[in-house]
Amino acid sequence: MCVRMEQMFGVGSMISVQIVRFHASKRDIERLYACNRESAQVWNTCLQLAKNYYLEHRKWISQSELQKQS
Q1: To 5 degrees, how large is the angle CA 31–CA 66–CA 37?
Q2: 23, 36, 50, 57: which has the highest count of C-beta atoms within 10 A?
Q3: 3-state DSSP of the chain
Q4: pLDDT (0 to 100) of residue 16
Q5: Phi, then psi, of 16 in degrees rounded to 5
Q6: pLDDT tens-digit map of 5-61
Q7: Which domain holds residue 7?
Q8: CB 20, CB 32: distance < 8 Å
Q9: What are phi and psi of 21, to 5 degrees?
């Protein structure tokens, strides 16, 4: 299995990618995919909270406010 490891910098900056090979059991791969699905759910929830906050307050939510709401 290959995994892309990305290091992201500020807006408009370059994204560097490194592909790393590793071996894992089927059980471990399934767990990794489950973790990926969970992180996607967290991302979608945070994104929805941020959008709703912006619509209500006309400014973007702060990190501390986002943590309070989630």
Answers
A1: 15
A2: 50
A3: CEEEEEECCCCCCCCEEEEEECCCCHHHHHHHHHHHHHHHHHHHHHHHHHHHHHHHHCCCCCHHHHHHHC
A4: 76
A5: -100, 140
A6: 555 555 556 667 788 888 999 999 999 999 999 999 999 999 999 999 999 999 999
A7: 2-69
A8: no
A9: -90, 140
Q: Write down the pTM of the prediction.
A: 0.65
Residues 14-36: b if buried by 16+ CB within 10 A, e if exposed? eeeeeeeeeeeeeeeeeeeeeee
Q: For residue 2, what pLDDT band results from cuts at 50, 70 and 90?
A: low
Bridge partner residues of 5 (DSSP): 18
